[in-house]
From TrEMBL:
Residues 792-861 form the Alpha-L-rhamnosidase C-terminal domain. Residues 166-338 form the Bacterial alpha-L-rhamnosidase N-terminal domain. One of its GO terms (biological process) is carbohydrate metabolic process. This is alpha-L-rhamnosidase. Its EC number is 3.2.1.40.
Amino acid sequence: MNLRFLQVTALFFALAPISKTLAQSLTALKTEYLVNPIGLDNPNPRFTWQMNDAGQGAKQTAYRVLVDTDSASLVKTNTKLWNTGWVKSDDNLVIYSGQPLKPFTKYFWRVDIADGNQKKSNKVYIASFETGIMKMENWQGAWISDSENTKLKPAPYFRNTFATIKKIRSARAYIAAAGLYELSINGKKIGNHRMDPMYTRFDRRTLYVTYDVTKAINKGKNAIGVLLGNGWYNHQSTAVWYFDRAPWRNRPTFCLDVRITYEDGTTETIKSSKEWKTALSPIIFNSIYTAEHYDARLEKAGWNTPDFDDTDWKSVMYRSAPSKNIVAQAMHPIRNVEEIASKSLRKFNDTTYLFDLGRNISGVSKITVSGPAGTVIKLKHGERLYTNGHVDISNIDAHYRPTDNTDPFQTDILILNGKGEQSFMPHFNYKGFQYVEVSSSAPIQLKKEDLVGYFMHSDVPVVGDVKSSEPIINKIYYATNNSYLSNLFGYPTDCPQREKNGWTGDAQIAIETGLYGFDGITIYEKWLADHRDEQQPNGVLPSIIPTDGWGYEWGNGPDWTSTIAIIPWNVYLFYGDKKLLADCYGNIRKYVNHIDETYPTGLTTWGLGDWIPVKSKSPVELTSTCYYYADVVILAKAAKILGKNDDYEKYMALAKKIKDAFNAKYLNKEKGIYASGVQTEMSVPLYWKIVPEESIALVAENLAKRVEADGFHLDVGLLGTKAILNALSENGYSDIAYKVAAQKTYPSWGWWMENGATTLYENWPIDAKSDISMNHIMFGEIGAWLYKSPGGIKPDEKQPGFKHIILDPHIMAGLDSFEASHIGPYGKITSAWKRINNGIRYDITIPANSTATISLPLTRGMDNYVNGKINNIGKIDLAAGKYVIEQKTKN
C-alpha cells in the first residue's frame, strides 16, 4: 500500500519546525498539557510529546529530555539543570525531576527520540515553560479593594501609574482575585480571557493568572487599570442555592504583581498597594447569575491611561487574602470562542426588536446602537418564544428568587450617553440563549447586523470528530458538543442559564463525551481539586462543586458524587497519566469507606436515582449500588496501579461483597431479569459490569427484548441514558442500540433535533412544565457512544492513554458510512467504514508509537483483507500506520 503522511492537526505544535519527510519528527511538545505555558507552580511539571512518523510500525524505543534556562545549551546538550540521558522507553510522558525550579523563571526543554531502528532524531525540538509565583511568600502586592460593602452595586475601577527608564527585557503580570477582573495597561485590555479567575471555593483556594505584558509597557510613564466584578464571590442575586449567604462573601478584592526584568538583569515589581486609587465604574450592577447593567453616562474616558486626572478618586483599602492557598490557574481559559451573526431580526415596533442567532449558545450578546442620552435599552436573553414572538424565560428562571424588580433574569440593561453609536458587551456575566429581545425607553433603529452573539466557554482544543451518513446522527453529535461546551466554564456545569452549577451527576455522565471530543484534562484536574477542597472529613461530597455549603444534604449519593472516582479513572484511561488518580486516591478511599460504614450490607439507598425518567421509575437502591460498586472497583484498580496491594485486596473483597448482595436481591437468575425488567434496571447493571458472567447473555437478550417492546424508544432517565446504548452494543445488540439512537419520534434525541434543537435538552418532552432547560449535557452520553460503538475506538486500561487502542467498530443497519477520529496522547486515531458493492471497507489510522487490536466479524462466504492481503482472523493486531481493511464476498 502506498502510504502518505498524515499530518497531525494544527491544534498541536512545537517551537521548532517539523519536517514532513523526516522519520520520527516530533510535535505536540507540551508542559502540563499546555503549549509553552507561563506562570506554572508545579515544581515537577509533566512533559509530553508526539512522534510523527509515516512509516508502518513506527515506534519510539528511547528518549532523552533536557531542561535549561538557556536554549542554546540545549542545542549543545551540555545542560546541567536536568538531562535524563538516553532512556530505553516508549513513554511520551515524563515528569521533571531535575534541580529545583525557581520562581519567575523561563525554562526551555528539549526532547530527542530514537525510532524502532535505533535511529535518533537529527533535528532539535525545543519547547518552553515559565514558572510563576510558586510560593505564597513570593507575593509582594497587597490585597486591596474599595470597601467591604457587599451591597454596593457598581463595579470598582482601580488604577496606578509607574515609570520605567531602562530598557525592558520582559515583564509579567501576576494577578489573583476574589471575584472577577479585567486587567489593562495603558488603556488596553491584557489578554483575551473572559471570566478570570476560574471559580473555586474562594476561602480554601484562590487562583492567579499570569500574563506576558512586555509589549504593553512603554518607556516612561505607564498606567495599570483593574476592573473588578462580583462573580461567585459577591453574589448579589438571590436564588435557591443561597450563594448570597456564602461564608466567603465580601466585596471583590485583588492582588497584583507586575514583575519587570530589565536588559541589565535587574528587576522591579509594580504591586498593588495603598498608592492605588479607586472609583466606581459605569457598570452599575453585575451578577454572574442574572446579567449586567451599564450606564454609559458614567464613563470615565481614559481612566486606565497614564495622563488621566484621578485627583477625585479615593484611596484603596487593605484586605486580608481570601485564602491561604493562592495557586496558579494552569488551564485552558474561557474565551469568546466564536462570533455568531444574527440569523434574523423581527421588528415589533420602534422600541421592540427580536434577534435570533439561529442556535442555542452560552455566552453574551454585543449590541451596537445609538440614541438620546438616558435612553434605557433592555436586552432580554432566552431560549424560546411565546406564541406572540416575544422571549419566554419561564423555563429557566424557576429557581430565581428576586427580592425586587431591579435585577431581571438574563436581561442586560444599557443606558445610552447620547454621544453617537456605542457598543455594549457584558464584562462579568454569561447567559444561555438563542433569542435576544431588545426593548428601549425611546424609539431606536436597529438592523440585523447590530447584534452578534459570542459563544463563550473554556477554550479546550478539539480532539475528536464524528461523521455519519445519517443526518440525524450528525445533528445529535453537533448538539451534544454544543451542550458540552456551553457547560464548560472552568468547571463542568449543568446549564448556562438557570443554574450554572457544577452538578456532579451531569459531569460524570458526560466525562467520556468530553474527553473523546476535547482536550479537557486541565479543566478536570482543576475541578477535582475543587472536589478535594469540598470533601468533608467523613468523606461526604456535595452534589454541586464548588458550593457555598448547599448540596451536602441533597442529591449527593454515589450516583452523583461518584465523580471523585469516575473522572480520575477516565482521565487515566484517556491520557495514561496517573497524577489525578494519585491526587484523588485518598479522597476516593475516604468516600468509599463512608458508604461502607453507613451501608454495611453492601446495598445503598443513598442517591437521587434515575433522574427525570420517561415513564418507568427504578429503585434508587439498584442504581446507587451499581455506582457504589463502580467506585469500589475503580478504587481497587487504582490501588493496584499505585502499588497499594493491601488496599487492592481489601477493596476487591468489598466489590465482591457488593456484587453478591446486589445480585441476591435484584437478579432473577432463572429469567435473567433485574427487578421489574425496565430499561434502566437492566442496562445499568450490564454497563457497570455487576452482572454475573454466566447471566450476561440472558440479561442482555432480555434488555434487547424490552427495548423492542418499547418500540425502540428510550424509557430511561439520567442514569439509564448513560447505560442503555452501551449495554446493548457491548453485548451483541448494536443494531438495536442504533435504532434507539437514531429515533426521530418522542422520546428520543432525534425528536429534539426534528423540533429544531441545536443543543440537548433537560427533559424528553419539549413541552414539559418543569425541568426544561434547553441546554443541558446530562443526556449527553450518546456523544461518547458514537465513538465507542459505530466508531469502535476505545482505550485499553492495560495500556492506557491509547498506547494500545481497542478497535471494535459496529456496522449497523441503517448506516451506510461512519467515521470517528480522536487525537490521543500519541496522535490521531481514525476509524472509518463504509458499505461497498460487495462488502465493507474500513480505513484505519494508528498513530506512531501506539498499537491497536481490531475485532472483525468472521462471516461465512466473506473474506477479510488487510492492505490487500487476505487475513481471516477475528482479532487483528495492528502496528502504527494506515490500513485499508475490506470484508468482501468470496469470488
